[in-house]
Design a protein that fits this description.
The structure is a single chain. The chain is rod-shaped and about 175 Å long. The chain has a 5-stranded antiparallel beta sheet. Strand 3 (about 130) and strand 4 form a beta hairpin. It has about 500 residues and is an alpha+beta fold. The chain has helices spanning about 1-10, 15-65, 75-85, 115-120, 165-200, 200-215, 230-295, 300-325, 335-355, 370-390, 420-430, 440-450, 485-490; strands at about 95-100, 105-110, 130, 140-145, 155-160, 335, 355-360, 370, 395-400, 405-415, 455-465, 465-475. The chain has 2 domains: about 10-190, no CATH class; about 325-490, Histidine kinase-like ATPase, C-terminal domain (Heat Shock Protein 90), CATH 3.30.565.10. Helix 6 (about 200-215) runs parallel beside helix 7 (about 230-295). Helices cover about 55% and strands about 15% of the residues. The two termini are about 45 Å apart. It has 13 helices and 12 strands.
Length: about 500
């Protein structure tokens, strides 16, 4: 497995199209060489049988010369006959001829060289058609010379043949065949490589384009590629060009959309600041009007000044929050009963202008570990939205109380109510939705503020009598306020 892994790592940088062409070329070479080797091996069998036939024919001719003198007492005549045979040869060259009696006595022995003279003689009791000696190019052939009745051998004729010329000729033919096959294999492999590279040219362009697309730069192939003859490849390239063009257009659209979102963010920021500053300003103007109308009433003037001071503090906090990119500074003042009294005084003028009866009940007896500015933001926006949604001469009810887990308040109006989709988004604190104009600025401020305190919104609707309820639960456990942006990311 380690060898395969190393090979994969080595071949990873090589394009797949080049690998395919290389594998096809190597396959052609391998098949050609293998075919040549099989042909050579197949020739060895006929070659061996041919040599055996040559040995038999040679023994036939030699027997005719040796047989008349192949008996004890005719040694001189036998040697003379053997020497005559040694003076000529054609094709097959004998290097040693031995004639032995059936008992093993050597009647005649002619050796052409020292190696042949030292060669071990074959056994007498077997007829040897072709036997390899210690020298791979020399073979023994042996045949008994029978008497007329063929019951008993007169002598045994053994000859060692040198087949090196035949083998050299066969080897030269094999080398020539292998050379021709190698040249043909290389030529065919080169042609196959060129053909495969040409056929895979469109795929190579497509592979390069896909690598560029994976690196984040998708570009259509376009006119860079010749139209392939294969209609499926042509269709594949056209499909890639369509995809790449769409990707380029999407990237351009994302850039344009980012610019539009940036402009929209700036617009929402300005609208949010104006919305949050305008709400306390209305109550502060009423307080100033009260102080002017009753300059001699010290209690009324002092209460109005306190309300103006707290309103200005709330506006200052909105400005600080905006300057810190919607990341309010930690450590806000705990909410208490005075904050809810201020909220009632800020909301009542708006209710009076629309002829809406405001029923305000807040049971806050001590300071609570919740950021007062954020709680005021939530209640003020929900209260003003409820007054705007109430029927003319209708009724808005605000309830606030404390339990063991946190602050609970609800705002009820008798208006037409919210859409079910809006109620679901309020309940799930869908912070992505509030970034659109659909949700409105007030609801967006409320949802971000509730999320920053780890709270939840519970909207409800009843039909008889018609009423819409927005309940908010702010737990004490998350009184250490978290970043609204972090709350948005977590949701």
């Amino acid at each position: 497995m380690s060898v395969i892994s190393s090979l994969n790592r080595l071949l990873t940088p090589v394009p797949q199209t080049m690998l395919v062409a290389a594998v096809a070329t190597l396959s052609i070479l391998f098949v050609t060489v293998l075919a040549s080797r099989v042909a050579v091996l197949m020739h060895q069998g006929p070659e061996t049988r041919l040599v055996e036939r040559i040995g038999e024919v040679y023994l036939d001719g030699l027997s005719a010369v040796v047989e008349p003198n192949a008996e004890v007492g005719h040694e001189k005549e036998l040697m003379a006959a053997l020497e005559r045979i040694a003076t000529y040869h054609d094709g097959v060259r004998e290097v040693r001829i031995v004639v032995r009696s059936p008992s093993g006595q050597i009647l005649g022995d002619l050796a052409r060289d020292e190696t042949a003279a030292k060669a071990e003689l074959p056994r007498l009791d077997t007829e040897i058609p072709l036997t390899e000696s210690s020298d791979r190019n020399r073979f023994w052939v042996q045949r008994p010379l029978w008497r007329g009745d063929r019951d008993r051998a007169r002598a045994v004729l053994s000859a060692q043949l040198d087949l090196k010329p035949i083998r050299d000729e066969r080897l030269a033919a094999d080398i020539k065949s292998l050379a021709v096959n190698a040249i043909m294999a290389l030529t065919l492999a080169a042609f196959g490589y060129w053909l495969m590279r040409r056929l895979l040219g469109p795929l190579r362009l497509l592979e390069t384009a896909l690598d560029r697309a994976a690196a984040g730069d998708p570009q259509p192939i376009g006119a860079a590629a010749e139209v392939p003859a294969n209609p499926r490849l042509a269709s594949l390239i056209r499909a890639y060009d369509t995809m790449a063009q769409a990707q380029v257009e999407r990237a351009q659209l994302r850039i344009a959309q980012a610019e539009r979102l940036r402009a929209a963010d700036l617009g929402r920021l300005a609208a949010t600041v104006a919305h949050e500053v305008r709400n306390p300003l209305a109550g502060m103007l009423n307080a100033i009007d009260t102080a002017r109308r009753f300059p001699d009433n010290r209690a009324a003037v002092a209460g109005s000044l306190d309300l103006v001071e707290r309103g200005l503090a709330a506006i200052s906090r909105v400005v600080d929050t905006t300057l810190s990119l919607h990341r309010p500074p930690p450590g806000g003042k705990p909410v208490d009963a005075v904050d809810f009294e201020d909220l009632a005084r800020l909301i009542r003028p708006a209710a009076a202008r629309r002829g809406v009866r405001l029923d305000w009940r807040a049971r806050i007896e001590e300071a609570l570990p919740l950021d007062a500015a954020v709680v005021r933001q939530i209640v003020l926006n929900l209260g003003l939205n409820a007054i705007a949604a109430a029927r003319p001469n209708g009724r808005v009810e605000v309830r606030a109380e404390v339990d063991a887990e946190g602050l609970i308040f609800s705002i009820v109006d008798d208006g037409v109510g919210l859409e079910p989709a809006v109620m679901r988004r309020l309940e799930t604190l869908d912070l992505d939705w509030i970034d659109t104009s659909e949700g409105g600025i007030g609801l967006g401020v409320v949802m971000r503020a509730v999320a920053s305190l780890g709270g939840r919104i519970v909207p409800g609707r009843r039909e008889t009598p018609p009423a819409t309820t927005i309940g908010v639960h702010l737990p004490f456990a998350t009184a250490s306020r978290e970043d609204p942006q972090d709350a948005e990311e977590r949701s």
